[in-house]
Amino acid sequence: MDKLTEEEYQRIISFIFETGQLKRVKRSGWWVTGMREPESVSDHSHRASIIAYLLGRLEGADAYKAALTCALHDLPEARINDLHKMGQRYIDYEAAEKVVLDEQLKDMPVSIAAEIEALVGSYNNDSDKEGIIARDADLLECIFQSKEYLEIGYKDSQRWIDKMKNLLITDSAKKLYSLVENADVHAWHKNLSKVQR
């Protein structure tokens, strides 16, 4: 990469501050289930990126590209918030996301902007294996979150688990889906702390 100017570094700093907004944007679809304080877009993107990395490895793809694609795909929500599918019936949300991403990247160094645009494009268009994996990871994260919400009493969360089944594409995502419904969300920590006398 060419040496950046002071102004380009300032644009990168502004971009990083803007991404911090995703920590405050709540995932709005859960409000329909009655959830008062759902996770943030940033919370969702973090775990989805980890899932994308794992799926990438399982599918023999570029796991790093899949994870980065997943980490970046919700960037526009820093400006237009998360809008659940019911709301998207009335607004061309995909077009709005495209406008926002173009504006977010407009002043970034060209090579960085082009790479982010390509990665987000591969997610939106299923244009390569890593984009497909990133989308599967995004859906799987919703499934895992649904399972966790179901465990604490949000019964409508089961609807999300059921709806996602036919949307998954990769074999690894389908396998994880087939196992998660009967999984114990607390199994990971049950043997970590032992009560002793």
Keywords:
197 residues; 0% strand; mainly alpha; Hypothetical protein af1432; 10 helices
Give the number of helices: 10
Note the main sheet: none
- Fraction of residues in β-strands: under 5%
**Under CATH, the topology is which?**
Hypothetical protein af1432
CATH class placement: Mainly Alpha
The count of β-strands is 0
Number of individual domains: 1
The SSE string, one letter per element, is HHHHHHHHHH
Q: Judging by the overall fold, what is the CATH architecture?
A: Orthogonal Bundle
Q: Could you give the distance between the termini?
A: 60 Å
Strands, helices and their partners?
Layout: H1 6-20, H2 41-59, H3 63-72, H4 77-80, H5 85-88, H6 93-105, H7 110-125, H8 129-151, H9 157-164, H10 171-180
Describe this protein's structure.
It is a single chain. The chain has 197 residues and is mainly α. The protein has one domain (6-180): Hypothetical protein af1432 (Orthogonal Bundle). It is built from ten helices and no strands. The protein has helices at residues 6-20, 41-59, 63-72, 77-80, 85-88, 93-105, 110-125, 129-151, 157-164, 171-180. The longest helix has 23 residues, at 129-151. The mean pLDDT is 93.
